């Protein structure tokens, strides 16, 4: 890390976090928006399911217009709707809020 006299603490922190996330992608959470935005009524987003999967293989969220729960597991994204139906999400569907990560189990057990 090269710190010059003009480097701010904020820049240094950002540089450190970028380096860490590049070395440890399993420790990074990707979030498409703020929960406060969702709670304030922002129900339309522009992030597609295909875009989400570039940032992780495991996560939770919702779909535009709050059209069901978004569950991502093993690089598959599912839409669970209020009527009880479940289906695989389409790559072009969009989300106003989701959180994704690259899942790395710490323990494994054969059953």
Automatic annotation (TrEMBL):
The keyword Iron-sulfur is annotated on this UniProt entry: no
Keywords: Acetoin biosynthesis, Decarboxylase, Lyase
Biological process annotations from GO: acetoin biosynthetic process
Domain of life: Bacteria
EC number of this enzyme: 4.1.1.5
Protein name as catalogued: Alpha-acetolactate decarboxylase
Pathway participation: Polyol metabolism; (R,R)-butane-2,3-diol biosynthesis; (R,R)-butane-2,3-diol from pyruvate: step 2/3
Source species: Klebsiella pneumoniae
Catalytic activity: (2S)-2-acetolactate + H(+) = (R)-acetoin + CO2
EC top class, as a word: lyase
Gene3D superfamilies the UniProt entry points to: Hypothetical protein, similar to alpha- acetolactate decarboxylase, domain 2
Family listed: Belongs to the alpha-acetolactate decarboxylase family.
Record keyword Lyase present: yes
GO molecular function: acetolactate decarboxylase activity
């Amino acid at each position: 890390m090269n710190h010059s006299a003009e480097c701010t603490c904020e820049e240094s922190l950002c540089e450190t976090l970028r380096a860490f996330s590049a070395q440890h992608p399993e420790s990074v959470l990707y979030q498409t928006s703020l929960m406060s935005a969702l709670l304030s009524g922002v129900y339309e987003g522009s992030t597609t399911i295909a875009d989400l999967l570039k940032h992780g293989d495991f996560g939770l969220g919702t779909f535009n217009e709050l059209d069901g729960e978004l569950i991502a597991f093993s690089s598959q994204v599912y839409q669970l709707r209020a009527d009880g139906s479940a289906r695989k999400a389409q790559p072009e569907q969009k989300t106003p809020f989701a959180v994704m990560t690259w899942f790395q189990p710490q323990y494994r057990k054969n059953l």
